[in-house]
């Protein structure tokens, strides 16, 4: 890595940390579409395979583009090291698979991403791995949920789509006291808004598909942690093959250059939407971390730089009112994705969380009238005007 004019500030690091250039002296990082690498001689080949020498061997292990993305993400989040995967779910699966064995137990926040829920409920039990869920807003459940065989505490904060928050510093201390790994899905916050490793977490995971790409173009996953833990991730990932393509790594690394300005605008727009919705008579409830009415507002202020780009509302009138509101939106896209330049509306009860029972949904704060809004980068007046007309 070549660190030109290195400053300690996030924006500068996100732009100036870059892979070394070739003899062509490219200003922008080239794309290395190569599956494998040449060795100078048989001795070099031996030394690289024996890990006696650093260098690229095969793109399932490393590639200049994936290495650049890893190095940047690690610096931006204050982690020693990292690994990247094809998707956010591959990052989550790889992390669990690297650290868990039959007989182990995972304590997870109840409101985890739908596919994470599927892994814990339906896939890991086949391999003898058990789980318990605890509510993010009832930290005592975290304490009570730790068992002698608990290996990992896994949380999403802010959670999707309930926007619940837990105090990461407190949780990291609890995990340390019990010798348990704390793994945080940091997808909603990105390294710009929240840095779990600095707050004491062992591993921070991102679906780079969301705000890190930020333009709805590609899938990707990132795992960050200490050198020691990432070596264990690598030992699993090198041989099981969840590798990110060089092309996607190149896109995502370029996206990091604009992450700070994009997140600033996402947050500014989302805050205005949250304030508007809170004052609207047809809205029963609004959840946004930086609204003083949020039950964990003080914690959000302590551990997040800003509130993020996601606002969840509950409309009066249940499922019918929610569909009507969504169908009347003219500019917002109806999509299951989030973290795009384009504003998006999702009805969690019938899409991302349709596999849950009604009771399970209510436990994670999803009502029939809940609508998750991913606030984009369009002009705030146009965003507000669309919401206003759809509610009228
Ligand atoms: C989207 C998402 C994931 C999964 O990421 P993919 O890139 O779609 O595999 C995991 N966690 C959260 C919080 C997400 O929003």
TrEMBL record:
GO terms for molecular function: transaminase activity. It catalyses: O-succinyl-L-homoserine + hydrogen sulfide = L-homocysteine + succinate. Pathway: Amino-acid biosynthesis; L-methionine biosynthesis via de novo pathway; L-homocysteine from O-succinyl-L-homoserine: step 1/1. It is an enzyme of class 2 (transferase). It comes from Pedobacter gandavensis. This is O-succinylhomoserine sulfhydrylase. Its EC number is 2.5.1.-. Its cofactor is pyridoxal 5'-phosphate. Homotetramer. It comes from the Bacteria. HAMAP family: MetZ. Keywords: Amino-acid biosynthesis, Aminotransferase, Methionine biosynthesis, Pyridoxal phosphate, Transferase. Catalyzes the formation of L-homocysteine from O-succinyl-L-homoserine (OSHS) and hydrogen sulfide. The keyword Hydrolase does not apply. The modification N6-(pyridoxal phosphate)lysine is found at residue 210. Belongs to the trans-sulfuration enzymes family. MetZ subfamily.
């Amino acid at each position: 890595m070549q660190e030109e004019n290195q400053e300690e500030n996030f924006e500068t690091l996100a732009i100036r940390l870059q892979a070394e250039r070739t003899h062509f002296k490219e200003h922008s990082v080239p794309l290395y579409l190569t599956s494998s690498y040449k060795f100078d001689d048989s001795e070099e080949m031996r030394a690289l395979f024996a890990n006696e020498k650093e260098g690229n061997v095969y793109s399932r292990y490393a590639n200049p583009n994936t290495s650049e993305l890893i190095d940047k993400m690690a610096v931006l989040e204050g982690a020693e090291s990292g690994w990247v995967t094809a998707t956010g779910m591959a990052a989550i699966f790889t992390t669990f698979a690297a650290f868990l064995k039959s007989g182990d137990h995972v304590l997870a926040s109840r409101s985890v991403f739908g596919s994470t829920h599927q892994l814990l409920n339906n896939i890991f039990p086949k391999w003898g791995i058990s789980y318990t869920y605890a509510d993010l807003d009832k930290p005592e459940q975290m304490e009570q949920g730790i068992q002698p065989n608990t290996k990992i505490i896994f949380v999403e904060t802010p959670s999707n789509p309930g926007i619940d928050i837990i105090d990461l510093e407190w949780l990291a201390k609890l995990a340390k006291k019990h010798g348990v790994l704390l793994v945080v899905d940091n997808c909603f916050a990105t390294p710009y808004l929240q840095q779990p490793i600095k707050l004491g977490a062992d591993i921070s995971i991102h679906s780079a598909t969301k705000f890190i790409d930020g333009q709805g173009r590609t899938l990707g996953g990132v795992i960050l942690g200490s050198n020691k833990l990432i070596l264990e991730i690598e030992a699993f990932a090198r041989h099981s093959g969840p590798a990110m393509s060089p092309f996607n790594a190149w896109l995502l690394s370029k996206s990091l250059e604009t992450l700070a300005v994009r997140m600033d605008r996402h947050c500014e727009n989302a805050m205005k939407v949250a304030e508007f919705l809170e004052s609207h008579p047809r809205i029963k409830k609004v959840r946004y971390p930086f609204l003083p009415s949020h039950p964990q507002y003080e914690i959000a202020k302590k551990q997040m730089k800003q509130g993020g780009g996601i606002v969840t509302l509950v409309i009066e009138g249940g499922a019918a009112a929610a569909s009507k509101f969504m169908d009347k939106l003219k500019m917002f896209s109806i999509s299951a994705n989030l973290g795009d330049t384009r504003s998006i509306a999702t009805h969690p009860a019938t899409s991302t969380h349709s596999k849950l029972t009604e009771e399970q949904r209510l436990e994670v704060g999803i009502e029939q009238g809940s609508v998750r809004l991913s606030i984009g980068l369009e002009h705030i007046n146009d965003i507000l005007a669309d919401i206003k007309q759809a509610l009228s």
